[in-house]
Amino acid sequence: MSTQSTIPSVRILPETIANKIAAGEVVERPASVVKELVENAIDAKATRITVRLVAGGRRLVEVVDNGHGMSEQDAILAIERHATSKIRNEEDLDNIRSMGFRGEALASIASVSRFEMVTRRAKDDAATRLRIDGGVLRDVEAAAGPPGTRISVNRLYFNTPARAKFLKGLATELGRCIDAVQRHTLANTDIGFQLFHNDKLIFDVPDHADLRERVALIWGLNFLNDMVEFDGERDGYRFHGLMGTPALSRAQRSHQFFFVNNRPIVNRTLQYGFEEGFRSLLTIGRHPVGIVMIDVHPRLADINVHPSKRECRFRDDRAVRQMLRDVVRMRMDALAQPPERDEPEDHDRPSPRPEPPTWEPQPTNPVSEREDTEQRSLPVGEGRDFLLDQPKPEQTDFETPEPPDPETGSVAPAAVYRPVGAMEIPPVQLFDTYLLVPEDDRLLIIDQHALHERLNYDMLCSELEDREFEAQQLAVPLLVDVPPSHAKLLAGNIEVFKDLGIDIEEFGGNTWQITAVCHLYEESKVGDMIFQVLDTIAQGDLFERDDFMADLFRLATEACKASVRGGDKLSMEERMSLLRGFRSLRPPYTCPHGRPIITELTQFQMEKSFRRRQ
Ligand code: ADP
Ligand code: MG
């Protein structure tokens, strides 16, 4: 009898606690709030959705829509657990076309934040404003407001500090929020999306923009230019969307997006099928890029697998995987057949590059292959973890030391390579790629391309640093067409371009004119560079100003006049001049992308190899 009091009796949890527990599943981080609110706006048939974030979403996530809104009565119901207007009975579960249906999101979010909702139906005179603090309803009152709904989620997790500790840094949380909005922006081509962070516009996609325009507005035209459309149907499954040519590959899966009936999902089966389609077209360790839409009857695809509805299970996984693989292969085969180019014509779309690039076979030199893909495009979010399941950033940092190569164990040496011996002997060139320079007790092996990139970068930085660069007034101004979203960015960043050695001004309409450029630039490369710089600026304030400019200088380096590449035969004079450049470098001995410029073979190592030493 005495032990009985220690056995707790079963009880139904009070509503507020149940909501907090559910919040753990549904509201993992600010990005989950973004996702739930945006999905509600989509379900409310909005044609325009604005997302505002402050401090990576931790201070504020606000979603404004012009959807059908709610009556006062519905607004109060909507924040109750398991309150939903979207399903009524069990059969509805098999036929889900709406984004939400569990009726948990609002209740959960409101239980762990300071929550405000203002909502109005078009036919009502006034809006209803409703405030909840940590799950406690504070007030409901009539308010002014346009038709539609605005939900503001302030200070997420303010009342559950333990959970707040699990949040990552601002850049990571922001990246995930941006990723969530991007996915819905790609999936819903009849809805306009606007995204702000700390009042800065990150992107603005009008409701009538098609998928290609969306890609261009989010990641830039460079990115779009390397993507092709695909469309294939079999056994009730339709696969369509855009996929990158092999030239657009990535070191991570950060640019693979899958959608089932317009719902963004993660699914290994689809990922495998997609990548199998590219087999033998990409080098090991590279991943294709794609936006893959699957249209299928809801009965064949179960999305009620995960509380946040992020996953999807197909009736027949293997078949889906094979179908997607085949669709991709066929499209890639068609691309490889030369003269036929079955890309749709884009008529009046502004393009800095008139010729869409056709796919070329993979270069054999892995270094220059990486190089090429990285130069081609640097979309928003490149190098950062913009994907829920891809937390590892791609390494592009100049200052970051290269990890040791597992094969050779060598890294870019930290020593300083000032002239030690005679400088008049030209280095030997090996494999048209490396320069061999004997020194006292070692042989230096220099990567000619990495070195030249670094020299260009250093030269550009010193030339531009004090703004005293030698500007080359262009006899005929260079015209570039800029999409409207980028035009705002451009207008606001004329000074940044000046810092980069480019004078640019408005010409009229979508067109801008470049009147002068730093003499180090190759004129024909400047247009591309401007787009890449805009893409980087579009990421907002993620970085300290210094890092940010360093990033831009790195991009600008790509526009420098002819660079020595791996595979180029060099004259004696060219080799000498590279060596002189090398001797003037300061460590770290890495190219602007962080790859080593030099490795070395010491006398000691040689003696060990020949067993002259133990
Ligand atoms: P669910 O989306 O699963 O139904 P939620 O908790 O997300 O559950 O939302 C509860 C209900 O509130 C929805 O079913 C819908 O009727 C209403 N609602 C939520 N957000 C909006 C919105 N932006 N516009 C109109 N109605 C909304
Ligand atoms: Mg919902």
Observed structural traits:
614 residues, alpha+beta, eight-stranded mixed β-sheet, five-stranded mixed β-sheet, 33% helix, binds adenosine-5'-diphosphate, binds magnesium ion
Explained architecture:
- The chain contains 19 helices and 22 strands.
- The chain has 614 residues and is an alpha+beta fold.
- The strands form five sheets. An eight-stranded mixed sheet has the order 5-4-3-6-2-1-7-8. It has a five-stranded mixed sheet with strand order 9-10-13-11-12. Strands 16-17-18-22 form a four-stranded antiparallel sheet.
- The longest helix is centred in the middle third of the chain and has 20 residues.
- The chain is globular and about 85 Å long.
- The chain binds adenosine-5'-diphosphate and magnesium ion (MG).
- The site of magnesium ion has 5 residues, from helix 2.
Q: Could you give the distance between the termini?
A: 79 Å
Query: Any low-confidence stretches, pLDDT <50, length ≥5?
Result: 345-414
* Largest sheet strand order: 5-4-3-6-2-1-7-8
Q: Using the alpha-carbon principal axes, give the shape.
A: globular
Largest sheet: 8 strands, mixed
Give the helix tally.
19
Radius of gyration: 28 Å
The chain-level mean pLDDT equals: 78
Structural class by SSE content: alpha+beta
Strand proportion: 15-25%
Helix amount, in percent?
25-40%
Oligomer: single chain
Bound molecules: adenosine-5'-diphosphate, magnesium ion
Count the strands?
Answer: 22
